[in-house]
């Protein structure tokens, strides 16, 4: 079975490619490299001991997509391609609507033209906005506070409408909580450009000495230690969720919306402590004001994923920190070193 992985050279995509190949799928990576490097796929090839078909192209470009679908009989698409920086989306909303929403429209049109109607889409827990309670279940009300989040929510709605119009589509919407960690080899991982916005890469860069200290963004939230609580999930567990979704996609007779989280909430200070323990390094921090738009607590109820995908996260917070440290300490400059 040929699986087209849009955004397959990126953080979650590259990790997912490993498990897809190990599960026997033929993978075609399609990426415009706007936020990735070809080096990630070279390293995936080393891990799996196999060459990967890598196509440089943009999901907004019909010719790029037609040429892939003309060259290979694609059975399903895992659609990771998208822009994901919340702050940038506020500053440049049209860029996000164009890339994420328009890109997905073009992708689905071309898929249908080539008779491929199976898609697994990367959504986000951001679509729950500020949840009224935790753990979060899939039927909770949806709301968003920024263009990035709205692009995810619109795409979810668009895909639901597509299914209503033609129920031969097989659609799985996976709502990720907070992906962290790296492949256990320490050779691939998250490689953010510039100053990381997200907690885990910031902690890792502080531990390796690239940043002086971490700003803990608020310590007056209603949580066990006052700092924000999130559901951190190991990227390999997340990757496994995609393989399980793909394995079952043909058995679904509705649009499936599924949380991928662990069900555990850890605070910023819990993560700092866990990282110090896993790395043996100090992570200096100072308390700073809250970040606009941040919420106190966000963690999943993952029982539906267990029920319908037979999937659950198995990796501990310690493994998340150890693997993240392995990647960061072996590759302090990400993929850039070998360019
Ligand atoms: P990433 O930036 O590492 O990967 C996205 C990939 O898509 C990159 O390789 C980029 O070059 C590619 N891309 C972007 N626009 C493209 C286009 N128009 N055509 C072709 N390729 C394009 O991000 P990631 O963390 O791996 O996230 C993957 C997906 O999961 C994204 O859709 C993201 O919004 C979603 N998601 C991520 C998180 C997270 O915390 N990382 C959380 C929830 C959802
Ligand atoms: C952020 C995005 C969300 C996106 C998710 C995954 C915002 C408002 N939300 O979520 O839309 O889906 O990333 O990419 O940007 N923190 C610090 N210091 C830091 C960075 C973060 O204390 O330098 C804290 C935050 O206040 C939060 C926790 O760490 O409590 C996690 O932050 P982050 O990794 O950015 O993820 P989210 O805020 O959950």
Give keywords.
40% helix, alpha/beta, 339 residues, single chain, 3-stranded mixed β-sheet, Rossmann fold, binds nicotinamide-adenine-dinucleotide, binds uridine-diphosphate-N-acetylglucosamine
Strand order, sheet with most strands: 3-2-1-4-5-6-11
The count of β-strands is 14
Elements, N to C (H/E): EHEHEHEHHEHEEHEEEHEEHEEHH
Major sheet summary line: 7 strands, parallel
Report the CATH C-level class of the domain at 2-181 and 232-261 and 300-313. Alpha Beta
Residues in helices, as a percent range: 25-40%
Count helical runs: 11
- List unreliable stretches of 5+ residues: none
Shape annotation: globular
Beta-strand percent range = 15-25%
The CATH superfamily of the domain at 2-181 and 232-261 and 300-313 appears as NAD(P)-binding Rossmann-like Domain
The CATH architecture of the domain at 2-181 and 232-261 and 300-313 can be given as: 3-Layer(aba) Sandwich
CATH topology description of the domain at 2-181 and 232-261 and 300-313: Rossmann fold
Euclidean distance between termini CA atoms = 33 Å
Structural class: alpha/beta
Query: What is the alpha-carbon Rg in Å?
Result: 19 Å
> Roughly what is the average pLDDT, rounded to an integer?
97
- Ligand roster: nicotinamide-adenine-dinucleotide, uridine-diphosphate-N-acetylglucosamine
């Amino acid at each position: 079975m040929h699986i087209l992985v849009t955004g397959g050279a990126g953080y979650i995509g590259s990790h997912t490619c490993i498990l897809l190949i190990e599960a026997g799928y033929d993978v075609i990576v399609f990426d415009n490299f706007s936020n990735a490097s070809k080096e990630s796929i070279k390293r995936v090839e080393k891990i799996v001991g196999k060459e990967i078909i890598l196509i440089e192209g943009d999901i907004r470009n019909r010719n790029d997509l037609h040429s892939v679908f003309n060259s290979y009989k694609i059975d399903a698409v895992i659609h990771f391609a998208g822009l994901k920086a919340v702050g940038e989306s506020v500053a440049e909303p049209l860029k996000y609507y164009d890339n994420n929403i328009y890109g997905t429209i073009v992708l689905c049109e071309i898929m249908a033209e080539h008779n491929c109607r199976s898609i697994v889409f990367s959504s986000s827990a951001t679509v729950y906005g500020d949840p009224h309670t935790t753990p979060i279940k899939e039927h909770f009300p949806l709301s968003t506070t920024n263009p990035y989040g709205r692009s995810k929510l619109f795409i979810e709605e668009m895909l639901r409408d597509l299914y209503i119009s033609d129920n031969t589509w097989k659609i799985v919407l996976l709502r990720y909580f907070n992906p962290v960690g790296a492949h256990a080899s320490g050779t691939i991982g998250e490689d953010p450009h510039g100053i990381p916005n997200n907690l885990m890469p910031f902690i890792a860069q502080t531990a390796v000495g690239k940043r002086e200290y971490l700003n803990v963004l608020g310590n007056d939230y209603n949580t066990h230690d006052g700092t924000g609580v999130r559901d951190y999930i190991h990227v390999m567990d997340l990757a496994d969720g995609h393989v399980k979704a793909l394995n079952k996609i043909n058995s679904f007779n509705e649009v499936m919306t599924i949380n991928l989280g662990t069900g555990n909430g850890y605070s910023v200070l819990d993560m700092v402590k866990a990282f110090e323990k896993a790395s043996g390094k100090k992570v200096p921090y100072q308390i700073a004001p809250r970040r606009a738009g941040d919420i106190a607590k966000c963690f999943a109820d993952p029982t539906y994923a267990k029920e319908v995908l037979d999937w659950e996260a198995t990796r501990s917070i310690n493994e998340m920190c150890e693997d993240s440290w392995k990647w960061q300490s072996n590759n302090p400059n990400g993929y850039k070193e070998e360019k």
